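Much of our argument rests on the idea that a fold can be written as discrete symbols. The record that follows shows the chain in one-letter code together with its fold in token form.
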Amino acid sequence: MKRVFIVCCAILIALTGRAQTSSWTDATGVQFDFIIVDAANKYAHITHATAPTGATLLTVPGIVPYNGDTYTVTEVTGLVVGGYDGDMKKVILSENIKAGRNSVVGYAPNLEEIVFPSTLEIIGNFTFPTLVSLKYIDLSNTKVRFIGSAAFPNIDKVSYVKFPQTLRRISQTIFNSPFSPTLKELVLPEKLDTIDFTAFAGLSLEEITFENPNPALLYHINNPLPNSNTQGPLDAIFLSQLQTVYVPADATKAYQTTPRWSNRSNLYREKVSFGTTGYTSYYLENENFEVPAGCTAYIITGITPSGNPTTPDQAQVTAFTTGKIIPKQTGFILQGTPSSTIEYQANVTGTEESVTGNLLVGTATEREFSSASDKYYVLANGDEGIGFYKQGTRNGASIKLAAHRAGLRLPLAIAPAKGFTIDFESARKEAETTGIRDVRPTMQPRENVIYDLQGRRVTNPGRGIYIVNGKKVVRE
């Protein structure tokens, strides 16, 4: 009796399973086979699709009808395009779909575009094989966390790939093809923290950007990793054409000193951007900074009193030209081409410049500086042009700096009651022509000729803006 009961249960389960497998044909004539995976919550998986001959567009639905109810499609677990779909140009995966597995799109020689839903979280192994005409892969609007082995092999014509910020892990040879001559760059998002040792193998990449300041944890799907710690995911055996690896500010040292990531450490670069003025403050906590071509760096070491109540004091500026190495934990000002982004090298070997007496302070993370014995200023393009100004309504009592930025801290003993000028240009020229970078006033004093902004000569100026010897000066 017990055996008979077990057999009956097995038959019932089989019949139930078969009853939960169905198909549905959409308005364009595409037949979708699906299986009910959760009757209580009304979830279904699409297992196959058959499109009419000559179809060029296929939309995989996010809902399907079954027994008078509507079921949400959460996964596509089988072939919907491939084999004989030689005319197919575009596939749309609808909203609600969270995962794609098991050759969702097979050999479709003329498929040019796949639209991915914002709900997508997982792309399994071999999900989109042999997409020889696909033009791009844009996952930026999705929630993809994992990409499986050889998820996108044979992407002959893909010119770019955009990953989402949610991506955490990528598996073995995700593109698995030496036939990707058009894909030259990849940007890997900040949350990506685990990758297979061979993740990039076979690509023709020239440039990779890692947005995570910490090198990802490496694993190998077939275990173990190669015995030699000198072998890494950026090896020439995987990426023979790789020229540059970009990492976040202050992250070069972390990549250069991490086993396997240290391979080809000469390729690491960081980037800094300039606004419309061509000046920015900068600071690196863990690594030194080599002044890049076309740029000049500056520090401020003191204030020279003008000796005249109508003339602002002069900042003592030290300039560093291209190739000079600024030590870590040094706040400095960097001048470059306005409205540009340039690359630089950090954590380099060589003789570092002396920054003794530097009055610029910086921070690796957003931070506020304040002290009762100091005055604080930030670099800005103010009424008198590029220079240091009191920040907002803080009146010099404090400043708030963003990560990798610097500000000026002046002890009260030397903080001028009136304005002070910073002659970056003279400092740069001195450094370029003579190598003497500590710039102080060298001209003989002359009589100050003062005018107001209406062009009238003034003998006893009060507070305000004046023209002194041809230069605009603020008297506080």
Notes: Residues 2-19 form the longest helix (18 residues).
